[in-house]
Amino acid sequence: MPFLEMKNISKRFVDVVANDRVCFDVERGEVHTLLGENGAGKTTLMNILYGLYSRDEGEIYLDGKLVIISSPYEAIKLHIGMIHQHFMLIPNLSVTENIILGLPSSRGFLLELKKAEENIDNISRKYELRVDPKALVRQLPVGLRQRVEILKALYRKTDILILDEPTSVLTPLEVETFFKIIRRFTEDGLAVIFISHKLNEVMSISDRITVLRGGNVVGTLKKHDTDPNKLAGMMVGKEITLSLDKPCEKKGKRLLEVRGLSVNSEKGGKPLVNNVSFDIHEAEILGVAGVDGNGQGELTDAIAGLQPVSKGQILINGMDVAHLSPRKRIERKLGYIPSDRQRVGLVVDFSVAQNLVLKDFRDTPFSKQRFFLNRRQINTNAERLIKEFDIKVSHGNEKVAFLSGGNQQKVILAREISGKPDVLIAMQATRGLDVGSTKYVQERILEHREKGGATLFISTELDEIIAISDRIAVMYEGEIIGILSGGQEIDLERISLMMAGVREQKTKKSVS
Amino acid sequence: MWAIVFNASFITDFMAAAIRMATPLTFAGLSCTISERSGVFNIGAEGMMLSGAFVAAVGALFTGSAWIGTGFACIIGALLGLLLAVLSITLGANQIVSGVMINILSLGFTSFLSRIIMGSAITQKLPTFETWGIPFLVKIPVFGEIFFRQSPLSYISYAIAVILTFIFFKTTWGLSIRAAGENPRAVDTAGINVCLVRYICVMFSGIFASLGGAFLSVGVVRYFTENMSAGRGFIGLCIVILGKWHPLGAVLAALIFGAVDALQLRLQAFEVGIPYQFLVMLPYICGFIAISGVVGRAQSPEAVGKPYLKEN
Amino acid sequence: MSLNWKQITLSLSPVWATLVALTLGVGLILLAGLNPIKAYYALFMGAFSNIYGISSTLTKTTPLVFASLGVALAFKGGYFNVGAEGQLYLGGLGATLAGLYIHGLSPLLHIPVTLAAGFVAGGIWSVIPGYLKARHEVNEIITCIFMYFIGLLFIEYMASGPLFEPGAPSAMSPEIAASAQLPIIIPNTDVHLGFLMSLTLVFIMHLVLTKTTIGYQITAMGLNPVASRYAGVNIVKSMCILSFVSGGLAGLAGASEIMGLKHRLFDAFSPGYGLDAIVIAFLAKSNPIGVMFASLFFGTLRSGAGMMQRATGVPTTAVLAIQGLVILCVAISLVLPQWRPRWFRADIDKETPRKKENE
Fold it and tell me: How many domains does chain C have?
């Protein structure tokens, strides 16, 4: 009898079955991985276990006893801990306050900060998770915040620890240390559930692996019985070659030049983007790799004019636009796919047709004398782009809010690419999309390259960057640590070191 | 004229008035502090105050006791808080729209019911509170009478401020409240019922506001007039900012506004040449400056004004 | 597309909400020991039974339409203008100044100039919170409320101080020049040109919002300012213009009231039209045509209230209470479809596929 057993769990959202009679179990002292691509239902299943979602069907057994978990409160009482992909921390509170939040105190309703601090100290020493309990969380870097999350789970005497894509905020080097810590947990008898879509990590940490696809369990395997190729096949369901057809082009003129660009933080302290320089030529894709939150968002926003530039130049087609309005930059043929589709890229309560003219509704042919809207042209434009970009809607007047994530992204893509921009910025353009949509977006971006456009392609998925880019820049704490030029053998280890902030020159020195 | 201004009795009189004027503002400030700390904008404090004033007056009229009237005021305050909570927390309506709605609702109902219930028949004053002198301290020359002989509601406002400070920073409840105002989702995953925390805070917010109203009607003028809160609930919104979301800060900010108010009345009486309207404006102008960030904007709890809707 | 009854029912939700509110009003009047049927009847008769009633209803509707159009426009663009009452007063002041101190113009010129003065004065009062919101993210609701109090006191000062007519029994200015007064359009009544102007504005605004690039931009900005900025809209500039026009429309309410009806500036010449405007815009879901009908409804309430009080003893303030109930019911009717209790979810959940993203 397994320690924890989830039997026939089903969960439906709207018209999507997120989990379809999923069975899953985990033993004490093992790492059981949930593997699957985005949207496979991994997080949904774990949110059900943690009481954040209610399940439609199925049972959960802990130590052989049927348990009902309808809120995180009950999950915590059953010693289930979860570390979410997006940290559940409160920046303006101290580490200790964050950790003891929601826990009863032995002195009734009085806080016991002193005692808690001591306890935290003990735990952090035991697992070598050092962090100052008195520090405010907002002062901590991302890696340390994750430690706080782990401490929070341990402090609650967790038996089952759920880790949702925990490595996405870590550099490859930090990942190794992190895995050592997980090993310590399992040695102490914890059951660890590890959610991931990265095969190499899964192979290195797991004891058992359950593969989910489209809300169904494809299979549960022991690590020794499988290999990455087999897992990839199970994950995707069919053989998909991720290699993209990418003819090599000669360098043309420079379309985007960024010179010594800095963006200061409103709160003071280190600049968010620090003295960044690069250029992109015609028919070239510059990939930007880096762990999330190292200034990529600020860089792209600054280029698009959504974030004030503190220092430096941004030249589009040789003309400095660093202090021009977003409108002027759009007029100079800058396209921008923002990372946050619904908040930035779309007016979700507008129709598809309206969203497709979001940037040029004032221009002919969409307006007459820049004053009256030309509905017919707007609709024609929508019909054309819906067909051309294969956007799945019944008609152009459908609200964008009703579309799936992939189709919403296609609306943005259609709008940004159909304007034939000289420079296209694609910020996390494939995040959260299924394999099909991801491939589609990548292909359209490559097509833009073939037509001679320059592309700045930012992603946290290293595989994707390598597949699509002509050159790769690595960003760390607001700086470009180095740019690997095209034609070079891509050295994964080298990129990993750079992502952790190790400068290119230093590596060179150590090599020589 | 300046001789009069510097006269000792003028100063003591002025300070006593300042403290008296500050009490309803303190309640308004505390009302907004507790709700904003939990993540809810209570722009309805004005209406809750007005309803509190009215219900306290009616209660005092029928029972003959200012205390029972004040008790009724607390109940109506809690109910209006509950209404705001249901609309803005459970139903996810815009918090500010809901607040404005409570103001309009309160103005309408109190104006209507006051004519029905009190009519023009009420000529005698309502029962009120005896002032309390704190033993010994009240005997301090000059200042004793100013600071240590006040309406019991004033003492209650200070007590609430102290208790709130303690709760916010020394108890597990306070930690939950502060966290709910910063990141409700994190609070939810920590196993705390965010909605419950906010409901309780908003209901107390209503109670505090209505206590301020009770002070206005039965505590000072001893009658009820239509729209007698006259914007004090809105000043509460400024007090929170000036007091940096700290209950004791709210008391301090309220005292400053109370002093401005008292000064304004006094200058009006002395005809110093400044039109009194400009002096009445002073709190609003101070508030405007405070909120528009001309003198450094304070950091509000991050989740204030954002409804938290749990997914499934 | 076929008619969808559910959609129609939903889009008419303010009407249902108003009916519920009026029904609750019946209970309220019963509670007060008075006869609600008689009260409503008297209210209606007071507003429509004779030429005086109709005249009073229309003159009360006029400022409501102006001010509510201003508020509705602001709501549409995401600027929560709750300071229309203050802007209305400032508009009245602007018009009074232009009407008092400009002489010798023909009415054809003097009237537009005076209206413009009212528009600009109201606009200035509104653009300050609008600018602070757009540029410094200061909550406009709170600043609007403060501007309202400051404006009210400022008018009180002007009417009792610099503009005071010596010897007048209360705070008021001298009468504005005849050339700045709006002509009466129905003989023997108070209905002035402002009424026609307000109706014209309703249709102009309807056209602008639905057919033009400006309307598209305002709507986009109201629905998602971040995306609008991303798409190249200058938010600060647009918000300033929007708030100026919104305040200007509220200013026109004050201006037309002074120019068409009062002919002088009084210290409290508006009984709260600017406050009603918030309720009206909300009730009309910011739709100009809806604003027109809602304004007429509120004008009727205000106009018939006096007769109701005289005939049945139900105090005029009952109208305020009914307004409170209306806004309560509308608020509930607007959020109910979004609120999904378990038993209601399967059906309506179709509208939120965004959830898929969060998986």
Answer: 1
